[in-house]
Amino acid sequence: MPGVDLSLSYHVAFAVLGLAAAFGISFLSYRHPVPPQPRRWKIVFIVLRTVALWALLFLVGQPVLSLVNRSTLAPVVEVLVDNSQSLTLTDGLGDRRKLLREALASPELSALASDAEVRWSLFDHSRRPVERWSVDSLVQNGDRTDIAGAFHDLRIRSGERKPAAVVLLTDGNATTPVSPVYEAQALGVPVIAVGVGDTSDPRDLRVNDVVSNATAYAGTRVPVNVVLHSSGAGGEQVDVVLDHRGRTMDRTTVTLDQGARDRRVTLFFTPDSAGLHRSTVTLSRLRGEITYRNNSASFLTRVLSDKIRILIVSAAPNQDAAFLRRSLSSDSNLTVTMRTGTPRGSFLEGLLTPEVVRQTDALILVGVPDAGTPDEALQLLLRHEFARLPVWYLPQRTTDFSRLQSLSSLLPVRVEQVVPTELSVFFSVPESRRLHPIVRVSNNGSDPWSSLPPVFRSQGTFRPRPDAEVLATVRLGATVLSEPFLVVRSAEGRRTAFLTGYGFWRWKLLAPATGAGTDVYDTFVSNVVRWLTAVEDERRIRVRPDRDAFSSLEAPAFTAQAYDESLQPVIDADIEVTARSGGNSTTVLLSPLGNGQYAGTFPLLPPGDYTYSATVRTGTSVLGEDRGTFSVGGLNVEFVETRMDRVSLEGLASRTGGAYFGAGDMNGLADRIRMLPGFQDTEQVRRSDLELWSSPWILGTLVLLFSLEWFLRKRAGML
Predict the structure, then answer these.
(1) Mean pLDDT of 259-283
(2) Which domains does the chain have, with CATH numbers?
(3) What Å distances lie between residue 705 and 271, 538, 712, CA to CA?
(4) What pTM did the predictor assign?
(5) What does the CA dihedral 176, 178, 181, 187 come to, rounded to 10 degrees?
(6) Beta partners for residue 118, in sequence order
């Protein structure tokens, strides 16, 4: 039975004294009423006033009436059941679905229901509690095995009443990046792992990974690197076939190694049209494979219609122009046109005409102008129709800087007081600028900029425009100066870059000897050109994926920028991105990075083509929206690993204080759970409080008592 408790803000003795005081006041008030009243009516009046006055004094003590219910709760045991596609395999121990159902029907699990509250949940790419009967109708159609997510959801769902144990039935092959051990330890509950499947390597051939260019150009040969895995098929031959848009583009035959081994194969295809294309790598089937569903994988390529067209205009033959042409021409995605000036005012490769400039995506000026550069060429570059053409400028020792003033509108700097004194200087990139895409040069984690050989620079003053960015400065010996060396600008629909020195071809020849690496020059040149030709998005709200296409093993990452109407960065926006494919949708909230920049990552998504929509809010107001598309490649991660991962399950059980059992031998599981420290009944106390002093019913009764006394007094003719 529930207990009853009454609490007051003062000692109970005051309530007794209050009752006595109320009776005394009432007795004196009605001892000699006027007019005189019969004895029975005096008693009625005394009782009414005593009760009313004492009730009033009682309520001043803020009385609270508490009902206390005590009950005994059995310990909770959570059963997490794998519902992913990998449980459909048949291995050396038989059909995994059959093994799982037999484990679920085991007397060991049924015995727990007699002294524990058993709760059931299914998990794959999502997690959901189910009734016991639902577990018996498992479909094993999930495209992910998110064990970590199952523990995470359980931790949130269980709240203060933690389970005594978690029984996990799975093959152990987690296909999400978060560690199950981490989430299980955060839950803080022993895990009883039940492994479903065979631990030996089955006879299998599968595509483990496919790596290709995310972006390519029509008519360009694209390499496709395939990693295939084989087990139990040593010495056998298998065909590797690349299909692109329904046509076989390449194929090869490989002989498989003994044991469980990875093999790398490179195939090629040439896309013939622009767009987002899906290609497929397929392995021929071997008799007796555990599954054929991992014998193929698709990938996506964003194909662009045209190559980037680069025009190099050099005032005269020089090494910088020659090395630039050689480096850029080695890139199959670029088309390079050259115009080299002569002392006679002409060009070696032909005329510099409006048509030549018009067919250009980016312009590189080397030493232009010198004394021999015709004025007509300078005027051509300044024509209005070329106003948005990106420009990269490199001076030379022979540059006529006084005539260069006529091209000032093309440059991110203002040139002042240049004299022909040549200095040997070094290129220095500040730490704060090394994430810029132009100077982000990979060199095995080292800093190549400090190891590069010196180049040359004319003595003078180069003043960056207010909206320009200095990516590198001049270093003389060990002294870093504030003089700019590399300046870039992105404004008014045009991107420009300016190197204040020359002789950068020395990086190509001498960098390996100084320890800077062999590819610094080519990477730097490629970075500048790609930055110049990147499409500038001037929208205030911009939300986009890091790439157009992701592999099945990659979590799609998004970045965003948000600016207000005055083009000031918005630092407190809420940016919600929803990705949809078919009838399914997934939503993430991007996190602020500062200065109007945001980033976030989706969970692993099933293969397919996705549309996304993003909404940017500040408070209750919608600042803007954005939308677009991306794709996820077709590698079925559920069959990348086909054997049961006993090692991971045993490690998970051991690090949480649990135990491991095989699905075919669960004897002693119930007793093992009962021995856990948390497996014990708990007393639950539920308390419900009624504040009598604020109860409208109590207040109404008090008013009724005083009203009744007043009515009876008036009826008796009393004042």
Answers:
(1) 88
(2) 3-70+689-715 (no CATH), 75-186 (3.40.50.410), 204-304 (2.60.40.10), 308-533 (3.40.50.880), 541-632 (2.60.40.1930)
(3) 94, 77, 11
(4) 0.59
(5) -110
(6) 77
